[in-house]
Design a protein that fits this description.
This protein has 364 residues and is an alpha+beta fold. The chain has two domains: 100 residues, 2-Layer Sandwich (Phosphorylase Kinase, domain 1), CATH 3.30.200; 241 residues, Aminoglycoside 3'-phosphotransferase, Chain: A, domain 2. It has 13 helices and ten strands. The strands form three sheets. It has a five-stranded antiparallel beta sheet with strand order 1-2-3-5-4. A hairpin with a 5-residue loop joins β8 and β9. The radius of gyration is 21 Å and the shape is globular.
């Protein structure tokens, strides 16, 4: 569908309304995204507004991306990193009537997916996210500021859960009694994480933090990974954020919105594809402690997401959009089933991790 955008936004990037065609683009729910095509040259760009309800300080996103882009441009100029195109005034973002906008080049002959249908897609995605992690392994992640404070901080998420539990009505707590019990039981995941948290062999790294498959571009012809996109959550974090989020979102054929938890099972071949792809790039970078936490990364992210859904349910569904009253409770059940699947299949998954580590032991 063709859309109209404030003429001032276009002028910030040197465009005139009569010279371009704008169409809504993609399936994202956070930011508004448009495909901009120049009439005379056919050159295409992605124009995107930033959702300030989620990203309250968009200038931090711009600064983080520029720091990383400058580092990669200096050390790995051949790497395709989707950085912002400056405005005519040289700014990383345009600000028009309080709305933040950014422009990037459209990657030609590319395609993205909302769901995975082949383990090779998981492998290629893990390879590309791992490559970004590897290339930034020498980058000083302390330079990056948080674009969403506490985004993958399980300690914070657990406190939000217990705070919500104290304030929730007895009726709501009764409905969620089983899931509350499971959440409290799995508290040991947080304790285990905290035992490593400050280890020098568990460093903060520059992480993408949102490694769902739709944030990967594939070549339309070869189906090989081209690059990662959506860098809003590019900030310092632990390696488990990127690897764990892939496990959380790739392993099951159904998303967290599937209410029938009998369908929530893990696809072993996808697990192996993720670990293989990631270690192809990061095998020589990860410390011994990090290698011990490969499977744990999935447990960490799944548990965190489960208690986030449960917290929102206890709070009266004020954060995640819902289609029906019990959806956040169903999402919680879904994620706890997925977490249980990791434990049920732990022996198989550990064997796969060890095999992949051995195969990539000398990978550089």
């Amino acid at each position: 569908m063709e859309v109209e955008i404030n003429e001032t936004v276009l002028s910030e990037y040197g465009f005139k309304p009569a010279e371009v065609i704008l169409k809504s683009f993609g399936t994202g729910h956070i930011n508004s995204t448009f495909l901009l095509t120049q009439n005379n040259t056919g050159e295409q760009f992605i124009l995107q507004s930033i959702n300030i309800n989620v990203f309250r300080k968009p200038d931090i996103i711009a600064k983080n991306v520029k720091l990383v882009a400058d580092f990669l441009g200096e050390h790995y100029p051949e790497y395709l990193f989707v950085k912002a195109i400056p405005t005519v005034k040289g700014q990383e973002m345009a600000v028009v009537e309080g709305v933040y906008w950014r422009l990037t080049y459209f990657i030609s002959n590319s395609i993205s997916f909302d769901t995975l249908s082949d383990p090779m897609q998981a492998y290629e995605a893990a390879l590309q996210f791992g490559r970004l992690n590897k290339l930034l392994s020498a980058f000083d992640a302390s330079q990056l500021n948080e674009t969403i404070p506490g985004f993958h901080d399980l300690g914070l998420r657990y406190k939000q859960f217990t705070d919500a539990l104290e304030l929730a009505s007895e009726e709501i707590k009764q409905k969620a009694a089983n899931e509350i019990g499971i959440a409290l039981h799995y508290r040991f995941i947080l304790d285990y994480f905290n035992s490593f948290k400050n280890s020098t062999e568990f460093p903060d790294r520059a992480m993408h933090h949102d490694t769902k498959i739709s944030n990967m571009l594939f070549d339309k012809d070869s189906m090989k990974g081209i690059c990662v996109i959506d860098l809003d959550t590019l900030m310092a974090g632990k390696f488990i954020s990127d690897l764990g989020d892939m496990m959380r979102t790739y392993l099951c054929a159904y998303s967290e919105n599937e209410p029938d938890i009998s369908k929530i099972t893990i696809r072993i071949e996808y697990f192996e594809a993720i670990v293989n792809g990631y270690l192809h790039e990061m095998g020589a970078i990860l410390s011994p402690v990090e290698k011990e936490l490969i499977l744990f990364s999935g447990k960490y992210l799944i548990y965190m997401q489960a208690i986030r859904f449960l917290t929102d349910y206890l709070n009266g569904n004020i954060y995640y959009p819902i289609a029906y009253a019990e959806q956040n409770l169903d999402r919680t059940k879904n994620q706890f089933k997925l977490l249980n699947e990791l434990y049920e299949n732990e022996k198989i998954l550990v064997d796969i991790v060890n095999k992949c580590l051995k195969e990539h032991k000398y990978q550089s």
